[in-house]
């Protein structure tokens, strides 16, 4: 069925027909105009009786709906700045490792011989190298740092190139490294190569969601992380022999960041998240905070992760 344009008044009526209480209609219309009905309505599930009938629970208000929207914005910003820390560290460590071992000129560090000899990854190696060369061509005349090196030295060192590489490309780069280089990089983060290979695609996925202001708090990834010591320490419940939290949800991301962030950074992030959750809990009356946490994939004792 075709989706037709709806005026602000019509948008308000649709929400009211579904049982949402609109306290101040003019204010609500101004918010819908500024923030987009489609985006705000994307947070309605938490306040609905069921996804099937699409009606709101008794007492649900527009203020609550908008508060969930604002909560996700704040949560997304907290997550994003910490994901950027990991992104920067990964870029720095990889560029240092490869430059030290293979050279700092792009013709040296992009030599196919520097990467895995696994024949099943031959095409992948070629693709990643080509993506990096394309970034050198494009940014050699567009980005200040790369322009400087191209004009003055005729090449772009890897520690400069990583500045213009996406997190996704850097993750792909890790996957095509020689095993000994993967191990050396993973050891700096204090994890195994298996863990880092599992962690990176998930971080990249959430990083892109954050960058594009998509819904983050209830997002689930296609693949999950392995069972960790933190699932056991926090006594995460199981269903069908599988942990119900911390596999492909927000709590999984928090577990990953527990491994990769410095202790002080992780503690600060968790305190900021706790503040936002408690603030939302003080606003939302129509559903309990436990429902919010469950929707996020976060256990009630999530703060124990700090000292676990």
Describe the structure.
This protein is 60% helix and 1% strand. It has helices spanning 8-17, 25-35, 37-41, 62-102, 106-109, 122-139, 144-152, 158-161, 167-175, 179-189, 193-211, 229-233, 250-260, 263-283, 289-296; strands at residues 238-239, 242-243. The chain is globular and about 65 Å long. The protein is mainly α. It is built from 15 helices and 2 strands. The model has no long low-confidence stretch (mean pLDDT 94). A hairpin with a 2-residue loop joins β1 (238-239) and β2 (242-243). The protein has a two-stranded antiparallel sheet.
Most strands sheet: 2 strands, antiparallel
Query: What is the strand tally?
Result: 2
Strand order of the largest sheet: 1-2
List segments where confidence is low: pLDDT < 50 over at least 5 consecutive residues: none
Residues in helix, %? 55-70%
Total helices: the number is 15
Q: C-alpha Rg, in Å?
A: 23 Å
Strand content: under 5%
* Assembly state (oligomeric): single chain
State the secondary-structure class.
Answer: mainly alpha
- Large-scale geometry: globular
The span between the termini is 51 Å
**Overall pLDDT level:** 94
Spell out the helices and strands N to C.
Answer: HHHHHHHHHHHHEEHHH
Question: How would you summarize the topology of this molecule?
Answer:
Layout: H1 8-17, H2 25-35, H3 37-41, H4 62-102, H5 106-109, H6 122-139, H7 144-152, H8 158-161, H9 167-175, H10 179-189, H11 193-211, H12 229-233, E1 238-239, E2 242-243, H13 250-260, H14 263-283, H15 289-296
Helix pairs in contact: 1-2, 4-10, 4-11, 4-14, 9-11
